[in-house]
């Protein structure tokens, strides 16, 4: 796969934000978002824009602990674009290796926020696109990076120590196979490969499934093992 670095992620935050605002251009802010129950488009934009501003504050102040933050009730396109630009600018100024607080596993560096906010924006662009009946596409390199992010978090000792369900998963091997390119990911749960499942789909669908969105996947073997692992791994996204 093509390497995807820090600067790429900074640029992609802005690009995904531009695509998000284009997707909802002209749509009613009160439009319900089916994949985020109880949310409207305005609420979704408020959430994404607030997340950008929160992450920007963490990086700019080099916070060593969680910074208080709250979602705006609503947001508009100009406000969202401005927040993404500020975040990307602050990330570029800081560089990838500055120590800051993160909710993820070590190392706690600014590089975490470039990656996390890129995927936060891309996944909520999916939500917004579905809400307005549009077509969603995600570059393979971005989708693959989202899968890498999820698996990296699920494998960490930090995550297992904070998620009893993840630590207690039954033994097994999960194979994720990309149906577009010769790429696969292997995840071993427990200590012995007693059960296994192969999950096949486009990398975009694999990423969507991991982040709890509807996806077109084929399962061979113990599909329940995949769902148990995904559910147990999802704790970190709510931190």
UniProtKB/TrEMBL annotation:
SUPFAM superfamilies for this protein: DinB/YfiT-like putative metalloenzymes (SSF109854)
What is the protein name stated in its UniProt record?
Uncharacterized protein (TIGR03083 family)
Q: Which GO terms describe its molecular function?
A: metal ion binding
Residue ranges of domain Mycothiol-dependent maleylpyruvate isomerase metal-binding in the record: 11-128
**The species this protein was found in:** Saccharothrix violaceirubra
Q: Which InterPro entries match?
A: DinB/YfiT-like (IPR034660), Maleyloyr_isom (IPR017517), MDMPI_metal-binding (IPR024344)
One GO CC annotation, please?
A: plasma membrane
Please give the PANTHER family that the UniProt record associates with this protein.
CONSERVED PROTEIN (PTHR40758)
Q: What is the lineage of its organism?
A: Bacteria, Bacillati, Actinomycetota, Actinomycetes, Pseudonocardiales
């Amino acid at each position: 796969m093509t390497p995807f670095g820090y600067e790429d992620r900074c640029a992609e935050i802005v690009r995904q934000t531009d695509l998000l605002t284009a997707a909802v251009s002209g749509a009613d802010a009160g439009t319900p978002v089916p994949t985020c129950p109880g949310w409207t488009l305005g609420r979704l934009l408020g959430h994404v824009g607030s997340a950008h501003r929160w992450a920007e504050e963490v990086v700019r102040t080099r916070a060593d602990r969680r910074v208080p933050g709250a979602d705006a009730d609503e947001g508009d396109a100009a406000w969202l674009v401005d927040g993404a630009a500020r975040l990307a600018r602050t990330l570029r100024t800081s560089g990838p290796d500055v120590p800051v607080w993160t909710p993820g596993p070590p190392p706690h560096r600014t590089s975490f926020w470039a990656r996390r906010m890129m995927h936060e924006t891309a996944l909520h662009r999916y939500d917004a696109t579905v809400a307005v009946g549009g077509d969603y596409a995600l570059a393979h390199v971005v989708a693959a990076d989202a899968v890498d992010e999820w698996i990296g978090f699920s494998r960490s000792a930090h995550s297992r120590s904070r998620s009893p369900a993840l630590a207690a998963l039954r033994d097994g091997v999960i194979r994720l196979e990309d149906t577009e390119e010769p790429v696969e990911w292997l995840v071993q749960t427990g200590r012995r490969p007693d059960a296994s499942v192969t999950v096949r789909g486009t990398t975009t669908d694999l990423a969507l499934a991991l982040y709890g969105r509807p996806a077109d996947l084929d399962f061979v073997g113990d599909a329940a093992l995949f769902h148990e692992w995904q559910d147990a791994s999802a704790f970190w996204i709510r931190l």
